[in-house]
Amino acid sequence: MLREIYITETNCITPLGFDVESNIESILRGDTGIQIHNDISLMPNSFYASIINDEKINNAFAEISAETKYSRLEKMMILALEPIIKNAGVELNSKTAFLLSTTKGNVTALKDQSEESFKSAHLDALAKNVADFFQFQTQPITVSNACVSGILAVSIAKRMIQSELYDNVFVVAGDEVSEFVLSGFNAFQAMSDLPCKPYSKNRTGVSLGEATAAVLVSANPAAAKIKVIGDSSINDANHISGPSRTGEGLFLSIQNALKEAQIEAQKLDYISAHGTATPFNDEMEAIAFGRLNLQSVPVNSLKGFYGHTLGASGLLETVIAIESANSNTLFESKGFDEIGVSETINVIEKNENKNIEYFLKTASGFGGCNTAVVFEKIKHKLH
Amino acid sequence: MTQKTYIQSYIQIENNEIVLNGESVFKIEQTDFADFSKQAYRHFEIQYPKFFKMDALSKLAFLGADLLLSPIVSDEKENNIALVLANNSASLDTDVKHQESISDKGNYFPSPAVFVYTLPNICLGEISIRHQLKSENSFFIFDTFNTEFMSNYSNILLNSNKAETVLCGWVELFNNNYKAFLCTIGTNENLKITNETINTLYNK
Amino acid sequence: MEALKQELKEKIVTTLNLEDIAIEDIADNDPLFGDGLGLDSIDALELIVILDKDYGIKLVDPKEGKSIFQSIETMAAYIEANRTK
């Protein structure tokens, strides 16, 4: 019998707040981190993105360390991890792993052509810097699997604990809005001229965002916030940049995750979907959900609040979804107006109360990758 | 409960040479990676024009995977072969090219074809498309090949029935420095490779 | 116009890495996508960059690409009429 896996600690650093509580308050108020920016060091034209104020990062970091050697992203990751490592009281020994998820890490270091900068653009160097801050005893593990990285990290952590190698895995996920990614998404004609509008008829593309999120995945049920009961990451085997027209990889990922979770699709109370607001991605997701008869399950994309935070998105959106489940509240899918996908889906238009026992988190990305993870609310014993 | 797993086949690509299951199958004089990969493609008579559109990392992973998977993949059945690869430089080889295309503001023309390859997992996508593998896939980064993690992770995929076979390995490339080690792992006992592990084979 | 067509063929073969296609085998009216040269969606985006970089044409709506990039013939005609460099 494989071990049961839980998420016991969560945190996030976003433009909407530097802890989970303030993020939830902002979401309930309907705030968004997406704003217009005119910064020619990032893009020749003005653009919409969800960006964290530098001063806020530096001030918050100064409260936990006087060290100046860390990059902006490293500070954001350390800030996400620090309170949960402190709070968890888990010994950082040989049974405690550190897993970092990112797509581009410290890629901004490439702007500077020194040998030292080039070294810091390596993802393992980023992981080592963050791991050493907390003095993890095990070798850091980095996953870089495009836009599914953040949620894939949860499933990797689960598998690592089930293989009995580790008892606890601290996971951090993060990416920055950089000239590097802005120019690339723009070249892909994938940027929205207005704040992104997932699943809407007049959606035209993504708004990029930046954030870090951190969780503790553990075999210890004591302080469990949620149980991880099934997961799968299946490739479309179709195209390296365009999602499958049939949603095949996502369909199979959800199907496998449900099978492992041993629940029927109809048991799902909520789907925290990817919803990047590109025409093809959102359409593909609607097709995959339709094939699994998930038409009536409430679904949202949190991209309207945070933009697409790339390697952070899957984990950030899981952190928020856990709060959604534990407070029995469905959060609005911000930016949504008129349905713009060909298959019926039940997009959450305003915050509402609903009992959530099981929920599904999905993501899809370049390279044809998809990930689905099924979560179950902890049933607290009656006193 | 925990099944024993075995290395089925392995391949090494470095120093202008390809070694399959310990036997040299392709070797040429000193040249750069672009030329080496093209000559290897021609030598093995691979018919796949998309190969020339790939970045160097994908070409390296693709060549290794092609020689290991072509004999075992079949059109008639589901091929549940998971892909678990890792390296040190992620996609930095392509990242540097994309960065160059945006550093000169007077000549700012980022290429979508270059940008898509600024993700190391694209090589997993290329292999999946080529062999029609609708299967588990993940890309990891380490300072050096963490053989313990990679074989454990492969074993948990096999033992939890998430895959029937795992293509696992190290595909490192930056500029003209490259080294690939790939192996297939499954639950069938293999009498040809008995006492070897990923670690001993990689360090040979 | 003939020189421009030749130039476009050379550009397409080199920029899009069409290793197995000879320039002289591309007819002016061959479809660039689908059964013709077999270009895909990333190639289409790359052609938009070529228009901008080499001919100073910025496509306002990427969907316009569909009619412009039908063949070498249509592409050359569009460039001839709209080029700024």
From TrEMBL, chain A:
PROSITE patterns: KS3_2
Entry keyword Transferase: yes
Pfam families according to UniProt: ketoacyl-synt (PF00109), Ketoacyl-synt_C (PF02801)
SUPFAM superfamilies: Thiolase-like (SSF53901)
Highest taxon listed in the record's lineage: Bacteria
Domain spans labelled Ketosynthase family 3 (KS3): 2-377
InterPro entries assigned: Beta-ketoacyl_synthase, Ketoacyl_synth_C, Ketoacyl_synth_N, PKS_Beta-ketoAc_synthase_dom, Thiolase-like
Keywords: Transferase
UniProt record similarity statement: Belongs to the thiolase-like superfamily. Beta-ketoacyl-ACP synthases family.
Entry protein name: Beta-ketoacyl synthase
Lineage, top ranks: Bacteria, Pseudomonadati, Bacteroidota, Flavobacteriia, Flavobacteriales
TrEMBL record, chain B:
Protein name: 3-oxoacyl-ACP synthase
Organism per entry: Flavobacterium hungaricum
Taxonomy of the source species: Bacteria, Pseudomonadati, Bacteroidota, Flavobacteriia, Flavobacteriales
Automatic annotation (TrEMBL), chain C:
InterPro entries: ACP-like_sf, PP-bd_ACP
PROSITE patterns listed in its UniProt record: CARRIER
Residue ranges of every copy of the Carrier domain listed in the record: 2-83
Annotated NCBIfam families: PRK09184.1
Protein name: Acyl carrier protein
Organism: Flavobacterium hungaricum
Record lineage: Bacteria, Pseudomonadati, Bacteroidota, Flavobacteriia, Flavobacteriales
